[in-house]
Design goal:
Rossmann fold; 2 domains; 7 strands; binds S-adenosylmethionine; about 20% strand; about 30% helix; 7-stranded mixed beta sheet; 7 helices; about 230 residues; alpha/beta
Length: about 230
Protein backbone atom coordinates (compact mmCIF):
# COMPACT_ATOMS: atom_id res chain seq x y z
CA UNK A 1 0.00 0.00 0.00
CA UNK A 2 1.23 3.52 -0.65
CA UNK A 3 2.58 5.31 2.40
CA UNK A 4 0.60 8.51 2.03
CA UNK A 5 -3.01 7.53 2.56
CA UNK A 6 -4.15 11.15 2.74
CA UNK A 7 -3.20 12.00 -0.87
CA UNK A 8 -6.15 13.60 -2.61
CA UNK A 9 -7.00 12.54 -6.17
CA UNK A 10 -5.43 15.05 -8.55
CA UNK A 11 -2.41 15.86 -6.38
CA UNK A 12 -0.21 13.60 -8.49
CA UNK A 13 -0.85 12.77 -12.15
CA UNK A 14 -1.79 9.14 -12.77
CA UNK A 15 -0.29 9.17 -16.28
CA UNK A 16 2.59 10.36 -18.40
CA UNK A 17 1.92 11.48 -21.94
CA UNK A 18 3.35 8.77 -24.18
CA UNK A 19 4.21 8.84 -27.85
CA UNK A 20 1.68 11.08 -29.55
CA UNK A 21 2.80 10.42 -33.14
CA UNK A 22 -0.19 9.82 -35.35
CA UNK A 23 -0.74 8.83 -38.94
CA UNK A 24 -2.05 11.63 -41.20
CA UNK A 25 -5.45 9.87 -41.20
CA UNK A 26 -5.63 9.90 -37.41
CA UNK A 27 -4.48 13.53 -37.28
CA UNK A 28 -7.14 14.53 -39.74
CA UNK A 29 -9.78 12.52 -37.86
CA UNK A 30 -8.85 14.17 -34.56
CA UNK A 31 -8.99 17.67 -36.03
CA UNK A 32 -12.30 17.14 -37.79
CA UNK A 33 -14.16 14.86 -35.36
CA UNK A 34 -13.08 16.06 -31.92
CA UNK A 35 -15.24 19.21 -32.17
CA UNK A 36 -18.23 16.97 -32.98
CA UNK A 37 -17.82 14.00 -30.64
CA UNK A 38 -15.66 15.32 -27.77
CA UNK A 39 -16.94 17.28 -24.82
CA UNK A 40 -14.39 19.99 -24.03
CA UNK A 41 -12.84 20.21 -20.59
CA UNK A 42 -14.50 23.42 -19.49
CA UNK A 43 -15.11 23.73 -15.76
CA UNK A 44 -17.59 23.97 -14.23
CA UNK A 45 -18.93 21.91 -17.10
CA UNK A 46 -22.44 21.15 -18.12
CA UNK A 47 -24.92 18.32 -17.88
CA UNK A 48 -23.01 15.62 -19.75
CA UNK A 49 -26.17 13.52 -20.04
CA UNK A 50 -27.70 16.21 -22.24
CA UNK A 51 -25.14 15.71 -25.04
CA UNK A 52 -26.51 12.25 -25.87
CA UNK A 53 -29.38 11.52 -28.23
CA UNK A 54 -31.10 9.57 -25.44
CA UNK A 55 -30.28 11.63 -22.33
CA UNK A 56 -32.41 9.39 -20.10
CA UNK A 57 -30.46 6.23 -20.93
CA UNK A 58 -28.00 4.86 -18.35
CA UNK A 59 -24.61 6.54 -18.60
CA UNK A 60 -21.33 4.70 -18.02
CA UNK A 61 -18.01 6.46 -17.43
CA UNK A 62 -14.81 4.83 -18.66
CA UNK A 63 -11.54 6.12 -17.20
CA UNK A 64 -8.46 5.60 -19.39
CA UNK A 65 -9.83 3.74 -22.43
CA UNK A 66 -6.44 3.56 -24.17
CA UNK A 67 -7.00 2.70 -27.84
CA UNK A 68 -10.67 2.09 -27.00
CA UNK A 69 -11.15 -1.49 -28.22
CA UNK A 70 -13.50 -2.44 -25.38
CA UNK A 71 -15.13 1.01 -25.41
CA UNK A 72 -16.19 0.93 -29.05
CA UNK A 73 -17.36 -2.66 -28.91
CA UNK A 74 -19.47 -2.13 -25.80
CA UNK A 75 -21.04 1.04 -27.19
CA UNK A 76 -21.90 -0.68 -30.45
CA UNK A 77 -23.33 -3.73 -28.71
CA UNK A 78 -25.46 -1.72 -26.26
CA UNK A 79 -27.25 1.07 -28.13
CA UNK A 80 -29.58 1.64 -25.16
CA UNK A 81 -26.67 2.66 -22.91
CA UNK A 82 -24.60 5.86 -23.17
CA UNK A 83 -20.83 5.83 -22.65
CA UNK A 84 -18.48 8.67 -21.76
CA UNK A 85 -14.83 7.77 -22.32
CA UNK A 86 -12.11 9.92 -20.79
CA UNK A 87 -8.52 9.54 -21.94
CA UNK A 88 -5.34 11.64 -22.13
CA UNK A 89 -3.66 9.64 -24.92
CA UNK A 90 -4.37 11.56 -28.15
CA UNK A 91 -3.84 8.67 -30.62
CA UNK A 92 -6.38 6.62 -28.63
CA UNK A 93 -8.89 9.46 -28.75
CA UNK A 94 -8.29 9.83 -32.50
CA UNK A 95 -8.77 6.11 -33.11
CA UNK A 96 -12.07 6.04 -31.23
CA UNK A 97 -13.28 9.17 -33.05
CA UNK A 98 -12.71 7.42 -36.38
CA UNK A 99 -14.61 4.38 -35.14
CA UNK A 100 -17.53 6.51 -33.94
CA UNK A 101 -17.82 7.99 -37.42
CA UNK A 102 -17.21 4.78 -39.35
CA UNK A 103 -19.61 2.65 -37.32
CA UNK A 104 -22.11 5.51 -36.82
CA UNK A 105 -22.08 5.13 -33.04
CA UNK A 106 -24.36 7.70 -31.42
CA UNK A 107 -24.08 6.62 -27.77
CA UNK A 108 -20.36 7.25 -27.20
CA UNK A 109 -18.77 10.62 -26.43
CA UNK A 110 -15.24 11.44 -25.29
CA UNK A 111 -13.33 13.88 -23.15
CA UNK A 112 -9.67 14.27 -24.08
CA UNK A 113 -8.37 15.22 -20.66
CA UNK A 114 -7.26 13.95 -17.25
CA UNK A 115 -10.22 11.98 -15.86
CA UNK A 116 -9.43 13.04 -12.31
CA UNK A 117 -9.75 16.70 -13.26
CA UNK A 118 -12.84 15.98 -15.32
CA UNK A 119 -14.56 14.28 -12.37
CA UNK A 120 -13.37 16.93 -9.92
CA UNK A 121 -14.16 20.02 -11.96
CA UNK A 122 -16.99 19.37 -14.39
CA UNK A 123 -19.24 16.49 -13.38
CA UNK A 124 -22.39 17.00 -11.32
CA UNK A 125 -23.24 14.78 -8.34
CA UNK A 126 -24.84 11.41 -9.15
CA UNK A 127 -24.28 11.59 -12.92
CA UNK A 128 -23.17 8.02 -13.78
CA UNK A 129 -24.80 4.60 -13.53
CA UNK A 130 -21.48 2.78 -13.75
CA UNK A 131 -17.74 3.20 -14.15
CA UNK A 132 -15.25 1.05 -16.06
CA UNK A 133 -11.56 1.09 -15.19
CA UNK A 134 -9.85 -1.52 -17.33
CA UNK A 135 -6.13 -2.13 -16.86
CA UNK A 136 -5.23 1.17 -15.18
CA UNK A 137 -1.51 1.94 -15.28
CA UNK A 138 -0.01 -0.28 -12.54
CA UNK A 139 3.03 1.90 -11.76
CA UNK A 140 4.93 -1.11 -10.44
CA UNK A 141 8.00 0.70 -9.08
CA UNK A 142 7.65 1.59 -5.44
CA UNK A 143 8.59 5.24 -5.99
CA UNK A 144 5.92 5.58 -8.68
CA UNK A 145 3.04 3.99 -6.79
CA UNK A 146 1.76 7.38 -5.67
CA UNK A 147 0.63 7.74 -9.30
CA UNK A 148 -1.84 4.88 -9.07
CA UNK A 149 -5.42 5.92 -9.70
CA UNK A 150 -6.89 3.65 -7.03
CA UNK A 151 -5.71 5.04 -3.69
CA UNK A 152 -7.66 5.40 -0.43
CA UNK A 153 -9.01 8.83 -1.43
CA UNK A 154 -10.35 7.53 -4.75
CA UNK A 155 -13.58 5.67 -3.78
CA UNK A 156 -15.20 8.65 -2.00
CA UNK A 157 -14.03 10.93 -4.82
CA UNK A 158 -15.64 8.69 -7.44
CA UNK A 159 -18.74 7.99 -5.31
CA UNK A 160 -19.84 11.63 -5.56
CA UNK A 161 -20.50 11.33 -9.30
CA UNK A 162 -22.18 7.90 -9.13
CA UNK A 163 -25.87 7.33 -8.59
CA UNK A 164 -26.86 5.12 -5.65
CA UNK A 165 -26.62 1.50 -6.84
CA UNK A 166 -24.18 2.38 -9.65
CA UNK A 167 -21.42 -0.15 -10.29
CA UNK A 168 -17.65 0.18 -10.49
CA UNK A 169 -15.95 -2.49 -12.53
CA UNK A 170 -12.15 -2.67 -12.34
CA UNK A 171 -9.83 -5.10 -14.11
CA UNK A 172 -6.07 -5.48 -13.82
CA UNK A 173 -3.37 -7.98 -14.69
CA UNK A 174 -1.08 -6.61 -11.98
CA UNK A 175 -1.54 -8.85 -8.95
CA UNK A 176 -0.24 -6.54 -6.25
CA UNK A 177 -2.29 -3.59 -7.55
CA UNK A 178 -5.34 -5.88 -7.68
CA UNK A 179 -4.96 -6.52 -3.94
CA UNK A 180 -4.52 -2.80 -3.30
CA UNK A 181 -7.73 -2.07 -5.23
CA UNK A 182 -9.62 -4.72 -3.28
CA UNK A 183 -8.37 -3.42 0.06
CA UNK A 184 -9.15 0.20 -0.84
CA UNK A 185 -12.68 -0.48 -2.11
CA UNK A 186 -13.54 -2.91 0.71
CA UNK A 187 -12.52 -0.25 3.24
CA UNK A 188 -14.65 2.41 1.55
CA UNK A 189 -17.91 3.16 3.37
CA UNK A 190 -19.56 4.24 0.09
CA UNK A 191 -19.28 0.86 -1.68
CA UNK A 192 -20.16 -2.77 -1.28
CA UNK A 193 -18.50 -5.74 -2.92
CA UNK A 194 -20.92 -7.76 -5.04
CA UNK A 195 -18.69 -10.82 -4.68
CA UNK A 196 -16.55 -12.52 -2.07
CA UNK A 197 -13.18 -10.92 -2.81
CA UNK A 198 -12.41 -10.77 -6.53
CA UNK A 199 -15.26 -11.08 -9.03
CA UNK A 200 -15.56 -13.77 -11.69
CA UNK A 201 -14.84 -12.66 -15.24
CA UNK A 202 -17.74 -10.56 -16.53
CA UNK A 203 -18.40 -12.35 -19.79
CA UNK A 204 -19.79 -9.23 -21.47
CA UNK A 205 -16.43 -7.43 -21.25
CA UNK A 206 -14.60 -7.62 -24.57
CA UNK A 207 -11.04 -8.89 -24.36
CA UNK A 208 -8.50 -6.27 -25.52
CA UNK A 209 -4.91 -6.44 -26.84
CA UNK A 210 -3.80 -5.14 -23.46
CA UNK A 211 -5.34 -8.12 -21.74
CA UNK A 212 -3.83 -10.51 -24.30
CA UNK A 213 -0.40 -9.06 -23.49
CA UNK A 214 -0.92 -9.70 -19.77
CA UNK A 215 -2.08 -13.24 -20.44
CA UNK A 216 0.91 -13.86 -22.71
CA UNK A 217 3.13 -12.98 -19.74
CA UNK A 218 1.17 -15.48 -17.59
CA UNK A 219 -0.36 -12.67 -15.56
CA UNK A 220 -3.62 -13.58 -13.92
CA UNK A 221 -6.48 -11.20 -14.64
CA UNK A 222 -8.22 -9.89 -11.52
CA UNK A 223 -11.67 -8.35 -11.67
CA UNK A 224 -13.48 -6.30 -9.03
CA UNK A 225 -17.15 -5.42 -9.07
CA UNK A 226 -18.53 -3.03 -6.45
CA UNK A 227 -21.73 -1.01 -6.21
CA UNK A 228 -22.39 2.30 -4.53
CA UNK A 229 -24.51 1.78 -1.44
CA UNK A 230 -28.10 2.89 -1.57
CA UNK A 231 -28.97 5.02 1.47
CA UNK A 232 -31.47 3.38 3.81
CA UNK A 233 -34.40 5.71 4.40
C1 LIG B 1 -2.60 0.61 -19.29
S1 LIG B 1 -3.60 1.59 -20.29
C2 LIG B 1 -5.08 0.62 -20.49
C3 LIG B 1 -5.95 1.09 -21.60
C4 LIG B 1 -7.30 0.39 -21.77
N1 LIG B 1 -8.18 0.60 -20.65
C5 LIG B 1 -7.16 -1.08 -22.07
O1 LIG B 1 -7.61 -1.89 -21.27
O2 LIG B 1 -6.61 -1.43 -23.12
C6 LIG B 1 -4.11 2.84 -19.16
C7 LIG B 1 -4.67 4.06 -19.84
O3 LIG B 1 -5.16 4.96 -18.87
C8 LIG B 1 -4.89 6.27 -19.31
N2 LIG B 1 -4.92 7.15 -18.13
C9 LIG B 1 -4.17 7.07 -17.03
N3 LIG B 1 -4.50 8.02 -16.15
C10 LIG B 1 -5.51 8.73 -16.73
C11 LIG B 1 -6.26 9.86 -16.32
N4 LIG B 1 -6.08 10.43 -15.12
N5 LIG B 1 -7.20 10.32 -17.16
C12 LIG B 1 -7.40 9.75 -18.36
N6 LIG B 1 -6.71 8.69 -18.82
C13 LIG B 1 -5.78 8.18 -18.00
C14 LIG B 1 -3.53 6.17 -19.97
O4 LIG B 1 -3.31 7.21 -20.89
C15 LIG B 1 -3.64 4.81 -20.66
O5 LIG B 1 -4.12 4.93 -21.98
Amino acid sequence: MPQDDARAPGEVRTYVIRNTNMSPQRREAYRRLCPIFCIPYEPPGRDVRAVFEQPEAPLILEIGFGMGYATVELAERNPGVNYLGVEVHKPGVARVLRQIEKREISNLRLVHHDAVEVIRDMIADETFDGCHIFFPDPWPKKRHQKRRLVQPGFPPFLARVLRPGAYVYLVTDWEEYAHQMLEVFEAAAEFENRHEGFAPRQEWRPRTPFEEKGLAKDHQIHELYFTKKVPVV
